Amino acid sequence: MTDTVLKSKAASCPLYKKCGGCQLQNLSYPEQLAFKQRKVQRLLGRFGRIEPIIGMENPFHYRNKVQAAFGRTREGRIISGVYQSSSHRIVPVERCMTEDLLADEIIVTIRSMLRGFRIEPYDEDSGRGLLRHVLVKRGFQSGQVMVVLVTASPVFPAKRSFVTALCKAHPQITTVLQNVNPYRTSLVLGEREQVLYGPGYIEDTLCGCIFRISARSFYQINPVQTEILYGKAIEYAGLDGTQTVIDAYCGIGTIGLIASRHAGNVIGVENNRDAVRDAISNAKRNAIRNAWFTCADAGEFMVEMAEEGKRADVVFMDPPRAGSDERFLLSAERLAPSRIVYISCNPETQERDLMHLTGNGYRVRTIQPVDMFPHTNHVETVCLLEREVL
Description:
Strand order of the largest sheet: 3-2-1-4-5-6-7
Structural class: alpha/beta
Low-confidence stretches: 2-11
Number of helices: 11
Mean pLDDT: 92
Helix content: 25-40%
Radius of gyration: 22 Å
């Protein structure tokens, strides 16, 4: 690591105290890693060995997805930025040390174009104005860039001219969408969208597989560390080309498709229909024929497998921050795979779930922390559990 990385502190970001998004910027990066290692040790150390946390060589500008809210100051100046932690007050942002640089530049350009095109930012109090948010996604491997203009109304005056001017300013942009969110809600995206330029999606490569990324699909925000995280998950699964694998909470199929090259067959289960559609498309895009995806509750699906006398050798589970519910854990235990690889973005809820699994026939073999979000207090872990032979 360079001296800049080693000594990075809050002084490097003037918005540190206003934004609240990067809670650990008062620490150098090695100090941040030590803090996270202690956190994982405190929460999960009782279950087994905690490996040394894997940090980033360059823990800056790692976010491939950037979104900005738009509004006006009391003086009438148009601003764009992030909501202050636990509020709906916009903190103006020109450049963020964790966000992709090109994405930040595109957002600043859009903000500078609004006045010339007579586009008003949305006002939450009055419900007036057009532009609510801008979402930018960039494929770090492919270089493809998606821009999503979130508007309060489907009526977008001079939208063709606006998009033409935007793409002229940033020729790296490969697709532009308008997403319509007419409701007074904290949700960024609405249900309606229209492609204004390009194919309406981007693609990127992760762990050797190509993935289609739409406006609403989930894709890991830090692809550099995701490759490390998923590499550990595949290593822990111990695949030799013969096993049946369940990818629970499969999303757009990232873990399952990567695992398919090492497994006999993979079944991905997800209750979001849009994500399942993307997963099926991704399997076709990568010419993968031993992976299937279904829209269902993962817990119910595994119970049905067990009742039909079917088995799985490995279950990958990557639940949301709330962790898994007891019903899912019971269904996993009933299916009785020899290995469970548990990827977690929240060691607090993972601790609760590991208590359940270790009390019902499983033993933790190893836990690997990975720093997915430098400068924040978040830490990701991948844990290998093996079924105890009675």
